[in-house]
Write a structure and sequence with these properties.
single chain; 413 residues; 2 domains; nine-stranded mixed sheet
């Protein structure tokens, strides 16, 4: 673990000119370029050809989270504009329950222009279903860089989801350096998005179209979905020189019992669409490890801490414990869900995947090209045995488009 914690983030820097960052998606999502990395060999294709590179009968796992219109703007009587960016629900803490709340709810939020909002409530009027109502926002306790914010509105027939739909703004990534446009509401969602909760899209999924999904089915690829709600921390830069000084953000995950069964039927192996699916699938292994040690743990207690994978590897190395196989770990989860009558497992993860990490479930990965000095680049490097520079040099030299609205890669180490 010491070796991983001492990784210098500067080693994961590379020159990314602004003109290589895709500010908008292609008109046809599935016509984006696809870089193929297969056992060290790099070639170029188009995204519609993805199915032909995947083994027939293999399992592909997608993150079905849906980006919410998480940014709200309020104007004080003084004229100062305050931005409230909803990060995660506080009361109720469950996403689905919170979105269905009427009259009031609370969220953990980032606040823009905070110094202008010293006290009192902010208010603005909005129209929902032809009715005008007033929304109040009251600032609560400080939680590091964020604050708790209590929301109240005066119409019991209106849910918080409808409030966000009415006045919220889709939070496109800050590095696009442009305002959100109406078309982003469609282009910054995957075609299979279902479960509201993310403040950033699982961008590898943006290339898929109904035609590509049908082609996967025709090729005999099985598809499964899970949910990881992407937080604003996904854009959090690594500011420490060594990654041991970087704290990963918590992300909330939901995995169905059927998905666990599908993984078991495929020998505990899958192709992950996007780094969010990667983090969820790999977290499953460590959830299984935790259940093996604490069979009566609550779902909340199954949270995967940042350094657990490396601590567990160290315990195995020192002969303190037996290493679970992937199937054993998944079996522990499956039995836990049956014991507790759970169709869906809800918990959270802070997993950091970096060189030194041993992948358990993910065998192939579809992912975009990530920011320099990011934890996502560390994740990719760990997957391709630190061969990321070959991949990124090829992409830069062959006019691939980078970041959220950019092109993608299929990695098969």
């Amino acid at each position: 673990m010491a070796d991983t914690k001492q990784i210098q983030i500067e080693e994961y820097n590379y020159p990314l000119p602004d003109e290589r960052i895709a500010k908008y998606p292609l008109t046809q999502r599935d016509q984006s370029k696809l870089l193929i990395y297969n056992q060290g060999v790099v070639e170029e294709s188009v995204f519609t050809s993805l199915p032909q590179y995947l083994p027939k009968g293999s399992l592909m796992v997608f993150n079905n989270t849906k980006v919410i219109q998480a940014r709200m703007h309020f104007r004080k009587e003084t004229g100062a504009q305050i931005e409230i960016f909803c990060l995660e629900p506080s009361s109720p803490a469950d996403y689905a329950q919170n979105f269905q709340q009427t009259m009031s709810c609370s969220w953990i939020c980032l606040i823009g222009n905070l110094k202008k909002w010293k006290e009192g409530s902010l208010s603005r009027q909005l129209e929902v279903k032809g009715r005008t109502l007033t929304l109040l926002a009251t600032r609560g306790e400080c939680l590091g860089t964020s604050h708790k914010v209590d929301f109240q509105w005066d119409d019991a027939s209106v849910t918080f989801a409808e409030v966000l739909e009415a006045i919220g703004e889709l939070p496109i990534p800050p590095y696009l350096n442009r305002a959100t446009e109406e078309r982003d509401k469609e282009t910054y969602q995957t075609v299979y998005s279902k479960i509201k909760g993310s403040v950033a899209a699982p961008t590898a999924g943006l290339h898929f179209t109904p035609n590509v999904l049908e082609a996967l089915d025709a090729h005999g690829i099985e598809r499964e979905e899970l949910t990881l709600h992407v937080g604003a921390g996904t854009f959090k830069p690594v500011k420490s020189e060594e990654i041991g000084g970087h704290e990963m953000h918590t992300e909330y995950i939901s995995v169905g019992r059927r998905t666990v069964e599908k993984l078991m039927a495929h020998g505990g192996e899958a192709t992950a669409v996007g780094t969010t699916s990667v983090r969820t699938l790999e977290s499953l292994y460590y959830i299984g490890v935790t259940i093996s040690r604490h069979p009566d743990a609550t779902e909340k207690e199954l949270h995967v801490p940042q350094w657990l994978p490396y601590e567990y590897a160290e315990e195995i190395k020192q002969g303190k414990c037996h290493e679970l196989t992937t199937i054993e770990a998944l079996t522990h989860i499956h039995e836990y869900m049956k014991r507790n009558s759970l169709e869906v497992l809800h918990t959270s993860t802070q997993i950091i995947i970096a060189p030194g990490y041993n992948y358990h479930i993910v065998r192939r990965m579809v992912t975009n090209f990530h920011q320099p000095k990011s934890t996502l680049l560390l994740l990719v490097s760990a997957f391709v045995n630190r061969d990321w520079k070959k991949i990124y040099s090829y992409a830069l030299q062959h006019d691939f488009r980078f970041l959220s609205y950019g092109d993608s890669s299929l990695l098969m180490p």
